[in-house]
Amino acid sequence: MCAIDVIATIYVWVSNHFQTHMTPLFFFHIIALNVWLLGASAICVVGMATTHNIKIKLLFALGLLFCFMAIIGNGERSFLLGFFALLLSPFFIWHYKYKIYVVFLILLISIPSIYGIYTYSKTLSDRYNFGHMIDNVSTIWQSAPIEMGQYDAYCFDDTQKWLQCSSQSLAFGKNEIILEHSAITRLAMYKSALHLIMKEPFKPHIAGATSVGEYLRSYYGKDNPYRIYIDTSVYSNAENVYGFGHIHSTPLSILIEYGVFGFLTIVFFNFYILYIALKTSYKETHTQLSFVSKCVSVFLIGLWVQVQFDVMHPVMLKSFFLVFALYFALIHRSMCNEDFAHNK
């Protein structure tokens, strides 16, 4: 499945003249299928790190290159961040000789590297201009969500017909600080969501990540400062859509959906999977299970970074449940075989 995902993503990217955000295999949501690009990347990273045969190691390296191409073709920034986290994770979560020195060297190299990325990003398009976002995020955050439209150029573009911004934002006029529409909308929704979470931290509000956006709309009155600056917008020819259907942050979404206790339960379950995966990955008597466990641990790290900036759709949660259930079933079968061999 992961290999098909990579090939299909590259195919639709190249066949559409390198246009990003093209969804393969007729999936409606771009992240619903393409989250498994991280799964394919995890397999390739583990294969490169654990395989001793040079030819097989090169094949895994080639596969990782294809995964990177697919993620670029996908166009979602969250996957790119998850991919880099996934690449570095083995150095931090696995046991190996001279680990403390390697980690120290990576941290030492990361300082100028991060600054280089920060500087270089300022030469890129608004979507990938992370330097501009970092420079201005604190200033923008001081504004109320309903006023953040002053930083969105689309609010002052008379030629566009798909976005209507709040009068509170328009009253400020176009600010000299302009952020890309997707980024500024997310900041507004983050602040709106955080205010609700701080106000009612233990209350479960709604089930379904894709309904959180509309819930925030109904929760805050029209002139409430914590209502985001988008009055109505049109996406995919659907009228009167309030901003995004979700808030592009799985942790914040879970806190709104299930409250603090539900959030902590899900966090515990995630760390339990990581703990089991790391523990099982060092069983030298089970080579295949060890390989799968390493893949699971690396995939989880990449996924955790990616979901900070996006949410899990229901169709994805179902597949995750099946994958992790099969993984635990594999571990259980291995333990049963061990007990049988020991008692024989």
Automatic annotation (TrEMBL):
It is found in: Membrane. InterPro entries: O-antigen_ligase-rel_domated (IPR007016), WaaL-like (IPR051533). Pfam families: Wzy_C. One of its GO terms (cellular component) is membrane. Its main location: membrane. The chain crosses the membrane at residues 26-49, 56-72, 78-94, 101-120, 258-277, 289-305, 311-330. The keyword Transmembrane helix applies. It comes from the Bacteria. Residues 63-266 form the O-antigen ligase-related domain. Keywords: Membrane, Transmembrane, Transmembrane helix. The keyword Magnesium does not apply. It is a multi-pass membrane protein. PANTHER family: LIPOPOLYSACCHARIDE BIOSYNTHESIS PROTEIN PA4999-RELATED, TEICHURONIC ACID BIOSYNTHESIS PROTEIN TUAE. This is O-antigen ligase-related domain-containing protein. It comes from Helicobacter typhlonius.
